[in-house]
C-alpha cells in the first residue's frame, strides 16, 4: 500500500445522491438546532487583563479560527439540507478548519496556560481542545457521517465487528501464529477498522476520491489483497471450513461489485494487502508494546507510513527508531499526528515512541474497538 495522504481521524464519499433531505418545513429548524444554537454557547474566550502582544495575537487567532470552523460547519449543513451540490472533497475544508481551531487553541494555551480547561468527552488533551467546543465537534462528526454514507449497492454485514476479528485471526493463523497471538492479531484488526472508518462499514471518504470501503483501500490495494488471499485460502479452509464457506458466499454475493463495498471482502483484502505480512511479528510486537492500544497504533502506522514502519520493525530498537524525512513527517501531520500548534508543527523528527504518544486522537477509536472486542470474546465463551 502506498503512503496514505488522507486522515484516519474522526470518520474518514461523496454519495451525493444518497443525502437525506428533510422536508422544507424542517430545514430551518434543523439548521437552527444544529448550527444556529452554537452562537448561544459561552463566548469562545473572554479577554484577560494585561495581555502581552503575543497573548493577544494568540487569542485573536483562536477566536478567528473558531469562527471560521463554525462558518464552514454551517455552510455544509445548509448545502446538505437544501440538496445543493457539494464541492469535490467536501470534508477537506472541514478537516482543515477543525485542525486550525485546535492548533490555535494549543498556541493560546501555550501562551496563556491558565486557559487550559477541564476534560472533554472526546478524550482530547485539554491543552488542545476546549470542552466548550464539543457541540462543534459533534456537528463535524454528523456531517462526515452524511458525506461518507455508503453507496446504495453496498453490501453490509449483520456482524461487522465479528467479521473483522475472525478474518484477522484466521489470516494470522494461516501465517503461523498460535492461538494467543492470532487472537491479538484479530483484536488489532478491529482497531484498524475503527481507526479507518470509526467502525462504520462500506463508507466512502469525504477527503479522498481514492480510498473507500471498510478498510479504506484504493483499487490497487484491494486487488493486491485479493491475490494474496487466494494464496492462503486453501490453508484457511483446512483449519476453518466455516470461515472459508462464508468467504465463498461473500465472493458470490459481491460478483462484479467493487469489492471494497462488500464489508467482508473489503476487510479481507485490506488486511491481506497491508498487514498479513506483519502478523508473524505480532509476538515480538506484543512483547515490545504490551498496551493493546499501542499495538493498534503501530499497525495503523502501516496504513499511514508503511515503509518507515516496516524499517522500524526490522531495527533492533523499534521505539527509538527515528523518523526525520520531511515528507514522512508531512504524512504524519496530514493524519493528525504532530498537527496541532506551532510547537508540534515545528518538530523535524520523532522517534516511534514519540509518534505513538502523539497519536492521541486515535485513542477514543481504539478504546471503543477494545470494548467491542471484549464483547465478542465474551459471547464466544458463553
Architecture overview:
This protein is mainly α and 382 residues long. It has 2 domains: 20-147, no CATH class; 160-381, no CATH class. The chain is 59% helix and 1% strand. The chain is built from 16 helices and 2 strands. The chain starts with 23 loop residues before the first helix and ends with a helix. 43% of the residues are buried.
Brief synopsis:
The chain has 382 residues and is mainly alpha-helical.
Could you say which structural class the secondary elements and strand pairing correspond to? mainly alpha
Largest sheet: 2 strands, antiparallel
Task: Give the termini distance in whole angstroms.
Answer: 38 Å
Query: Considering DSSP H and I runs of 4 or more, what fraction of the residues is helical?
Result: 55-70%
Order of helix and strand elements from N to C terminus: HHHHHHHHHHHHEHHEHH
The tally of structural domains comes to 2
State the total count of DSSP E strands: 2
Strand order of the largest sheet: 1-2
* Share in β-strands: under 5%
Radius of gyration, Cα only, in angstroms?
22 Å
Shape: globular
* Rounded average pLDDT: 90
Feature tags:
1% strand, 16 helices, 59% helix, mainly alpha, globular, 382 residues
Break the fold down into its secondary structure elements and pairings.
Elements: H1 24-34, H2 53-81, H3 90-111, H4 134-147, H5 160-174, H6 179-197, H7 219-239, H8 241-254, H9 263-274, H10 282-288, H11 292-304, H12 306-314, E1 322-323, H13 326-334, H14 342-345, E2 350-351, H15 352-358, H16 363-381
Antiparallel strand pairs: 1-2
